[in-house]
Each structure stands twice: as structure tokens, then as C-alpha cells.
Specification:
binds fe (ii) ion, about 425 residues, Naphthalene 1,2-dioxygenase Alpha Subunit, Chain A, domain 1, about 20% helix, binds FE2/S2 (inorganic) cluster, 2 domains, single chain, Rieske Iron-sulfur Protein
Length: about 425
């Protein structure tokens, strides 16, 4: 149970809110897929932590990222003429280049060069990695790129999608750490993903996943925590499924049945977040036809820029298909696996009231994650953020522990980048 004040601290991400400062000062933030930025296109409007920006790609591939308000008289730079390396405000024709410098200010007349050099544009550095475009919104020198397994993968080994979700970022993050919900919310998907077949002595793997007795264990890691779900199967073996939380907003989920997924819940403002889903493999190239991805996409529609949209509003129960439920579908949302997730997140309200929850045994990872973030906020206030020591990068994974073996031995030998 958390207090109203703690709920505010965890969820408020606008401007100078403590959580906004903590995230912006500690990590690069993904904001777009590389394919969303094309030279000479209209600039992309970007909203993060309650502030508005524009981003554009120069013909040489570099990405500019500046405040949306023109430094001259504050007109939106979303309306600019895009001249390639520079964007030109349509009001008085000031031009800003991809490094964030004013290069022309025709309204100044003579001594333009001196004048331009004195104008400070709120510009932020960008980078590309893991099929995402990232921005550094903190003050001072940028940190190293986050220690995520997608950073540093060879070209083509990660494939990203994004959806804007109409609720607070913490609801997205908590969704990734909520292990139990796969066997309720996603029950119909699990049955579809794991069709009955002869294995483990003829048992049906989907049914076992949905009905086996569960134990939850959380182990803190240097970057966050490992959420371990142990399912006991009738033949004495144990299915160990490990999801990794990496502060502040990343979750590594073991794939079905192979491959890995990274989710990131990036704050747009208090009431919206960007849900990035990255499918990746160190072993093989990944694209939209990658088999593990096809299995979780319900149909042929993969809109990378809006991967899991709501089909209708709250008044229409987000498009829930009651006839389908009557015919046996669990949730009534058959679009794709993550539509089920975004529906339940939005259906908690824009900012869930965590003071009125009744948490159960399966919520232990969520409780620990909140405690870690609250501690990080306290440490940030005391100016005491230690940098993580180098070590192996974590990875979500799933392992069948044979009868008689100790899951702890299997846990110790897994969870690093080399098993992707
Ligand atoms: S407001 Fe943009 S150039 Fe004047
Ligand atoms: Fe889910």
C-alpha cells in the first residue's frame, strides 16, 4: 500500500517534478523509431515530461531536437519549412540547424552572425541504437547509453514498435512486471501461442502454464530487479520465467517461445506515455516477419507507429467484443497481445489511485519496483546517486528446471546477454 503522497511522487512527471528530474538526469530517453524521421519531412512533434519539442532528420542522417517554440517569438516550429540541414520558422524566417544553432535571423538585418551566435536555442543531443532514436534531456554532459541488451546489437537485430497510451507511465511499467496477468488477461493468446501438442509426457503446455501452482520471488539486481515466477508442473519439473526490471522504465520479458522483448514506458506527461516494444535477438536478424513476433500479432496488421491502439473509447468499452467472449475468448480484445495490455492500463483511469489497491502475492515485483523508485527519489534529493558497477547486462528468460534440480542453480547460470 502506498500513500497519496508517494503516488504523486511516482506518477507526476511534468517539468520539474522529482520523478521527471530523476529520469531525465539519469538516462537517455527513446522518443521515436528511426523510420519516423525522414529528411525534408514535416518535423516530428515530440512531447516528453510535459514539454513540447520538434525533431527532424538532416539529409546526412543526423537528428535535430529542439524546443517546439521558436527562440524568436515562440511560434511553433512544427510549422517550419524544412530545408534539410536547417529548419526555417515561417513567421520571420529564422533558420536553426541540426546542431541547434541559429544560422540565419533575417529580421536582424546587418550583423546577423554576431546576433545569431548570442541566441541560445534549447537543443538536445540525440543518438540511434537498438532501432530507436534517443534524446538526452538531462542537464550537463549526457550519461552513457543505458545498459540494455539492444544497445550495441548489430544492425537489423532489433525491431521496434511504439504506441501512445492514454494513461500515466507507471501503469505501463507495472504492466510489464505483472507476471500473473498473462494467465488471465492473455489466456486466449497463450492457448493460441502454445497449441496442444505431445510434450512433457503428453501434457498440454498452454494448459499447464495457465493452471500450474505459482510462486513469486524477487531478487534485487544492480540495475533493478529480477521477477522470478516458478510454475510447478505435475511431472516434477519447474518452469522458471524471469522478467527483468531495469530502472527507471524498462522491462525485459522472455519471449514466446523464443526471442526476447524489451518494453519501455516513457512519460509523455502525467496522463500519457509512449509504450515502446522492441523485439530483438543477438543470434538472428529481426523484422516484422520474425516468427516469434508473428505469433503475438493477431492479424496481418502491424502498424509500427501505433502498434496497440484502442479500438473505441471508454463509453464503448474500448471496443470489447462480447460476442467473441460468449464464444470463448477470454478478454474480448483479439487484435494483438498488447492491445489487451493497453486496454486494462487505460481502464484504471489516467492516473491509478494506488492508495485504494489490495495487492496480492503476485504483485511483489511491483511493490519492490515502487520501493526502488521511491528510494532513488530520496537519494536524488540527497544528491547521492551512485553509478552502477559494470557487470553482465540482464536479460529476460524462461527455463524448464528438471525434476530434482534447484531453480537457483538454473537462475544463476542465465539472464545475461549471451543467451539472447
Ligand atoms: S517567431 Fe520564429 S522567426 Fe520570428
Ligand atoms: Fe500483458
Amino acid at each position: 500500500m502506498i500513500t497519496a503522497q508517494q503516488n504523486e511522487l511516482l506518477t507526476r512527471v511534468g517539468g520539474d517534478a522529482p520523478m521527471s528530474r530523476l529520469i531525465r538526469s539519469s538516462t537517455w530517453v527513446p522518443f521515436a523509431l528511426p523510420t519516423q524521421l525522414k529528411p525534408y519531412d514535416a518535423p516530428m512533434k515530440v512531447r516528453l515530461f510535459g514539454a513540447d519539442y520538434v525533431a527532424w532528420r538532416a539529409p546526412d542522417g543526423r537528428v535535430g531536437f529542439v524546443d517546439q517554440a521558436c527562440p524568436h517569438r515562440r511560434v511553433s516550429l512544427a510549422l517550419v519549412r524544412n530545408e534539410g540541414c536547417a529548419i526555417r520558422c515561417i513567421f520571420h524566417g529564422w533558420a536553426i540547424d541540426v546542431t541547434g544553432k541559429v544560422v540565419e535571423a533575417p529580421s536582424q538585418g546587418a550583423d546577423q552572425a554576431d546576433f545569431c551566435a548570442r541566441v541560445e536555442v534549447a537543443h538536445h543531443p540525440t543518438r540511434e541504437a537498438g532501432d530507436l532514436v534517443w534524446v538526452w534531456l538531462g542537464e550537463g554532459l549526457p550519461a552513457e547509453m543505458p545498459r540494455l541488451p539492444i544497445v550495441g546489437l548489430p544492425e537489423g537485430h532489433a525491431w521496434s514498435t511504439v504506441t501512445k497510451v492514454a494513461c500515466n507511465w507507471l501503469q505501463g511499467l507495472e504492466g510489464g512486471l505483472d507476471t500473473f496477468h498473462i494467465q488471465a488477461l492473455h489466456a486466449s493468446w497463450i492457448e493460441r501461442l502454445s497449441p496442444p501438442k505431445k510434450s512433457s509426457g503428453g501434457a498440454d503446455p498452454a494448459k499447464m502454464l495457465l493452471t500450474s501452482p505459482l510462486t513469486y520471488i524477487v531478487e534485487p539486481t544492480e540495475l533493478g530487479l529480477s521477477a522470478i515466477a516458478l510454475r510447478s508442473y505435475p511431472n516434477g519439473s519447474t518452469l522458471m520465467r524471469v522478467t527483468q526490471y531495469i530502472r527507471p522504465f524498462s522491462v525485459l520479458i522472455p519471449g514466446y517461445p523464443t526471442g526476447s522483448t524489451l518494453t519501455m514506458s516513457v512519460p509523455v506527461d502525467d496522463e500519457n506515455y509512449l509504450f515502446f516494444l522492441v523485439y530483438f535477438s543477438a543470434r538472428e536478424k529481426v523484422d516484422e516477419n520474425w516468427p516469434p513476433l508473428r505469433r503475438i500479432v493477431g492479424n496481418d496488421r502491424v502498424v509500427r507507429e501505433d502498434f496497440a491502439p484502442l479500438l473505441a473509447d471508454e463509453a464503448a468499452n474500448y471496443g470489447q467484443d462480447r460476442a467473441l467472449m460468449a464464444a470463448g475468448h477470454y478478454s474480448g480484445f483479439p487484435g494483438n497481445l498488447f492491445e489487451e495490455d493497453t486496454v486494462v492500463q487505460v481502464a484504471m483511469g489516467r492516473i491509478a489511485d494506488r492508495t485504494r489497491e489490495h495487492l496480492s502475492a503476485s504483485d511483489v515485483a511491483i511493490v519492490q519496483m515502487r520501493a526502488q523508485l521511491l528510494r532513488a527519489l530520496r537519494e536524488a534529493e540527497a544528491d547521492d546517486i551512485g553509478s552502477a558497477a559494470p557487470g553482465a547486462d540482464p536479460l529476460g528468460f524462461e527455463v524448464m528446471v528438471p525434476p530434482g534440480a534447484d531453480w537457483r542453480d538454473a537462475f544463476a547460470g542465465q539472464g545475461r546477454r549471451d543467451v539472447a
